[in-house]
Amino acid sequence: MRNLLEFLAKYNHWFFFIFLEIVSFVLLFQYNSYQGSVWFSSANAFAGKVYSWDSKVESFFALTKVNEELNQRNIELEQQVRMLSDSIAGLKGDSTATRGGELAKLQGFRLIPAKVVHNTLDRAENFITIDKGYADGVRKDMGVACGKGVVGIVYMVGKHYSVVIPELNTQSSISCMILNRGYFGYLRWYGGDPSWGLLEDVPRHAHFRLYENVVTSGYSSVFPPGIMVGKILHVYNSPDGLAYRLMIKLSTDFGNLRDVCVIDNSAISESIDVLRASQDSLKLQQNAQ
User: Fold this and answer.
1) I need a surface site. Which of 51, 102, 202, 224 has the fewest CB within 10 A?
2) What angle do CA 51, 57, 62 make, to 5 degrees?
3) CA-based angle 120:38:137, to the nearest 5?
4) In a 10 Å sphere around its CB, with 0-12 CB exposed, 13-18 middle and 19+ buried, how is residue 37 labelled?
5) Taking each helix axis from N to C terminus, what angle separates 12-30 and 2-10, rounded to the nearest 10 degrees?
6) Which of 229, 233, 78, 79 has the alpha carbon at shortest distance from 168?
7) If you average pLDDT over residues 105-123, what whole number do you get?
8) What gap in Å lies between CA 199 and CA 177, rounded to an integer?
């Protein structure tokens, strides 16, 4: 005991120095979002592995509930497909045309299945870590969705892990529209309840009803049109009174998010780049004339 006390007394300044260093690092990364996201980025292999092991343990104990939800979801989808097929066949006599149109929406998009290994809900800037990276074809700015709807957009990419900015992030802004209405706005989240969002900048002349569905607009190369976002529950005026703000019940349950798909938009992005290049070339020719 005496030797221990002598040792502590002899090197007390080193222990005090280490303590101050730990406190300074905690303060730096806890209260500075940029430094925290860079240093503690879960896209790195070590953090990704730790999150992956933790997620596998949680997934093992949640398998029964997940299987029950999947079975119920499959039954609901089978019933919807059957009802839609019967309705289309009754109206047009042939359902192949509409099926082809739905498949056309997904042309150029490849789905990369992934699992959520880390997820936060209680912050203003939440992030999700998935177990796929650039080695699997994931790149920055790709869309991420699950069986229930939109999840977010890829933000940082490592070799085997990636970080996603979900809808539940104050920096997120996703172009959406009211299904079968054509009016669009931007989905934003300002913190608080993880099951709610706001669809902003909806024009004042828009016509819609409560409980109508909100889906992705398809006005960007990130998401194809028609992916579920949520339902309209309340209507408010924007702060300037020039537009509507719609409170949306998000379709994705972020508290129980396990399996997602990254939407590979490379073909669509390439076609958009070619189109933009041709438009720029045409403008240059017109200016030259």
Assistant:
1) 102
2) 120
3) 80
4) middle
5) 60
6) 229
7) 82
8) 9
Residue 174's alpha-carbon distances to 3, 56, 59, 166, 244, in angstroms, are 64, 30, 29, 10, 16
Residue with the two structure tokens 């045309």: 97
Q: Two tokens at 19? A: 């303590």
pTM of the complete model: 0.67
